[in-house]
Amino acid sequence: MCPVLQAKHPKSHHDHDRQSVGKQSDGHAPSLVEYENTYKLEPDSRFHETQIREIIAKVLKENLTDNSYDARVMSHRCLELSEIIKERVKLLDMHRFKIVCMVIIGQNSEQSMMVSSRCLWNFAHDNFASFTLKKELYYAVGMVFVTYAE
Question: What is the DSSP string of 120-144?
Fold first, then answer.
């Protein structure tokens, strides 16, 4: 029996051509499989305007119970409320729709305010819903825009 000679290579941190099986050379996980487009031009479900308006109203009424207005607090509250509304709208399972949610809270000091928006969209599938909550010292406007992603 003859002994098998094996060459020993010193391990170096400069070996770039060696990879582990599950990782790319840069250390990130392998890229996900890309699927072909379905070319689906019509949505499976329609826009639920009344349900979305009810979601906006419920979130604003539940979370804006105090009657004081502080600009610093309300700016953070706008972010929180828009995220809550967006997550609840996602639960309606409107697949392939993009959801944009905005909440505006302002001090009510007898001034007038007009909120307007302009969108480029397909009137057959895209839509929006809004709700305005008026309190003694502030007002809140919640808006949800839903566009179909073909």
Answer: ---TTT-EEEEEEEE-SSEEEEEEE
Is the model's pLDDT at 20 over the cut of 70?
no
Q: Which fold has domain 49-148?
A: Ribosomal protein S3 C-terminal domain (3.30.1140)
C-alpha to C-alpha distance for 60 and 91, rounded to whole angstroms: 18
Q: Give the number of residues written for the chain.
A: 150
CA 47 to chain centre: 17
Q: pTM for the whole thing? A: 0.71
User: What DSSP letter does each residue of 26-58 carry, written as one string?
Assistant: TSSPPPPPPPPP----S-SS---HHHHHHHHHH
Q: What span, in angstroms and rounded, lies between the C-alpha atoms of 87 and 91?
A: 7
